[in-house]
Design goal:
By secondary structure, the protein is mostly helical. It is built from 10 helices and no strands.
Amino acid sequence: MRLTPALTRAGLSKPSAGTAIKATTKGTTDETLLSLIAAQDKDAMRLLFGRHNVRVFRFVRRLVGNEATAEELVTEVFLDVWRNAGRFEGRAQVATWILGIARYKALSALRRRTLDEIDEETVEAIEDTADTPEIAFQKTERSAILQDCLKQLSPAHREVVDLVYYHDRSLDEVARIVGIPENTVKTRVFHARKKIAELMAARGLDRACL
């Protein structure tokens, strides 16, 4: 995903001089990038965007169920990052902080649209190049069934499953993003896995590898 027009209008379209080399170093941490962004380093902003925009887009798209809306929200998220980098206090990982902003934006969009349900994107099967067409089809079919099972979870349970298993967030990080106690996250994950197991069993499959 490229920088969106709104981010381009914010002056993030052309490399700047000065700290360009430091900001574009692959080994530069997210925390360092945020410090540079707080000092209006556009190269650091481009690098942070490049690292996280796809994950943020997928997370938001799962919540709002609409690709165009998700793209707009990604723009809003990273504009907020650009404007508020100096407020980052280091209490969580930068990725967790960004996902927290994304969650707030997505839920605000859902409230505006007054949706009753959140659509989930289809879970794409990762095809092993060594798989036969039959095995590849079975993987795709299993993923489709898992996706259907996920849709039957409550929004609260879908949210924690998405963050834990598709965004590799720890229980502590999920608690920070969602704003609930870590024990509540554990409980929701437990019940979500149990429900998925029941739904998969009803379809003649064992539990998906979450």
